[in-house]
């Protein structure tokens, strides 16, 4: 099972203008470019806007520790240079310009293309082969599961609930209406404010904490085995978290589960589902029920929702899936070999330095990654000719279009490093960047290198709304691990050299 989940991305750097070049036509005619550049809804919207297109920003997304202070500092200027630009994003933006101008005026389009500048020259100089190999990595990423379902768990589910009014023993009939009535009201974590909120328009649900119920050890063992058969990492520990209950009018907007140290995923075990319409749980476009014994598992950063219930009740036991504390875990032998070989072929074909925006999001201090990202980093670090760095990044991207002043047309796609040291700098330690030898390699890059993001979907947003990135299943404002970060894997030559003619250099 695979999905084309829309993920918020990492991405890119350096101010771009539409370019004049004979190579522009070659780029637009290449099959790989055409596949990347299609954004019909966006193009249609832009064409209907008239002369000027407002700036489109990638959602700022998540912050770390003192969230508001960091957000404000990044909005002003991070105070350190970007190190990469996202080739796919530049192509998407500038293709939109071309479509827009083409529909507006052939003469205007030619005037823009006749101007000197970077733009398509930069992306095209990467070569169709590089773009093709990066696209191949994207395709491999989509073959790795982000969720799995369809199980019926075989272990006896000896559930005992001790909460007053909700008392239940596994030999009795499970009265969902009665238990729902006496369970406590669920809140949700507003990542934007770092507070727990209670708003039935966002989340209308009840819950029972793990301190008020027990399950049998056999069920936990089976859950761990089921996870290991489908996901990376495989060394995992399932911990009972809560019983989630939804009744008439119940809902939970699309959200991601709040990250914490060593947490990699969630496993839901159904207790019963009488909801109408059925299949109220939604993940990656699939609608699933919570019938007794059913199982659903997913990584914590995968958006999911409970759509509004008109009638009936649903209940699940949620288990948190924690990575077992151990040495670095290699991908299990023989289980992912074909994908790893394909990843290796594409990485070897890409000329360093380059960066790859990871598919999943992680907390600030993650040491091991999940799914495709796990294999990608493992394979890259097996290459002897390069050094591999995996760092959190902040992405700032926007574009502007002005028919009357083609010189003002541009794409800004900056990728800023956001390591602990960079956060210390933002928070006021102005010598932090010079003291830390582990980040000095970034100085050689200077915004020059292409970054290829591994997620697909609509990246454009004028206004951030409640949903993935702003609504979590809980608030843990005291915990620096509780905020998602976008990550990039940066691959540089072993000798540390960087070609000054790298596409993207000023």
Write the layout of secondary structure elements.
Blueprint: E1 15-16, H1 23-29, H2 31-37, H3 40-47, E2 52-53, H4 67-76, E3 84-86, H5 87-104, H6 106-113, H7 120-124, H8 128-142, E4 147-152, E5 160-161, E6 168-169, H9 176-182, E7 184-185, E8 188-190, E9 195-197, E10 203-204, E11 206-209, E12 213-214, H10 217-230, E13 236-246, E14 251-255, E15 263-273, E16 281-283, E17 286-288, E18 294-299, E19 304-306, E20 314-323, H11 337-349, E21 354-357, H12 371-381, E22 386-402, E23 410-417, H13 420-426, H14 432-435, E24 449-453, E25 471-472, E26 486-493
Helix content: 25-40%
Q: What is the average per-residue confidence, as pLDDT, rounded to a whole number?
A: 75
Assembly state (oligomeric): single chain
- Proportion of residues in extended strands: 25-35%
Sheet of most strands: 8 strands, mixed
Q: Domains counted in the coordinates: how many? A: 2
Unreliable spans = 1-66, 112-121, 457-469, 500-506
Number of strands: 26
Terminal residue distance: 43 Å
| Number of discrete helical segments | 14
Question: What attributes characterize this protein structure?
Answer:
alpha+beta; disordered N terminus; Fe2OG dioxygenase domain-containing protein; 506 residues; Jelly Rolls
